[in-house]
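Q: Hi! First time doing this. I have a protein sequence and I read that you can turn it into a structure. Is that right? Here it is:
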Amino acid sequence: MRIITSIIKSLILSVGLFSLITAQAVDYYVSTTGNDSNAGSLSQPFKTITYAYSRASAGTIIHVLPGTYYDYQIGWGIHLGKSGTASSPIILKSEQNGKAIIDGKNASDRNQGFYIDGDYNVVDGFEITGGPHGGISIWSNGNKIINNNIHHNGTPASTSTLGQDGIYSSETTSDNYYANNFIHDNGRIGSNFDHGLYLCGNNETIINNILFRNAAYGLHIAGYDTVNSMRIYNNVISYNGKSGIILWMAVSGVDIKNNIIYNNAKYGIDSFDAHGSGVVVDKNIVFGNPLGNYNFTRDGSDYSYTLGITISSDPRFVDNSSATFNPHLSSTSPAIKSGLNLSSIFTTDFDGIGRPSGILPWDIGVYNYGSGISTSPLPPTNIRLL
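A: Yes, that's right. Below is the predicted 3D structure, encoded as structure tokens:
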């Protein structure tokens, strides 16, 4: 009996160990010179992101090597329909930041660059361009869009009133996170429907993004179902075709702090038929927007808001111009040490350089003063200026 019991225990231990091994996260590699019949290792990479993702599960990391990728699923784009978990997301990562390029080539049957309806996916470090209806569309929860260059999506001319945005999130979503992205030149020229970010979900966080030269609004907050608990911190929002930020329909708790909202075509922060409460605007630089810093009441808007400190002076970027824009701070910028310390929420700037902890004041905008000051977010190649 003891022998049998010992054998059973050994079997249970072996099964448990096998389950632990099989549950471990898998890393896959993708290269333009790979083959989808390969093992997906660094030495034998897959060829397409779509195939690598079909093999993924919670905790999988898909490493995408430099090159231009054109694969997609008809009607979707690159479809991220699987779910990770909060502690074990599915991660798609460009091995060299900005060097893995998702080019939709404006293919009429593609839709988006990435279409995400699975939970807890991470898209990290890609250049995303040529999505005919937008760069990224999100219909799920807990996703992170970080360190991407999202540009020239949704540009094909059409009479459609459906938005064609850099990133869109549905009103059914929650807990999505957007940080350190350069989102520019998205949408149809002159459109009122196409934006850098068009966000409708709950508990969304927008940190350290550059929203630049998009067709309509840099950030459109759309409360089809009430937008709750949105955090908008340390972004630069400039040269967009309408206003920098607009609030529309139902809102409840929108926190707008430490942003530079500069030289957009209409207002800095605008409103349209917006209702609700809990909008807080504080420690922003709002300047050069020809119709004014703020419009909290346009077209029947009546939400309650708190307006704290506004700096209404030139942010003095290293380069303020639209063509060669460089939002690093010059030595005389009023943004230096003028912001709130938000280290309890995040700790780095656009370049990943640490911001002060404790109570020391932060610089307003996406960059710490002096961090990478000679570099511009405008890459010398792959950018097709409007």
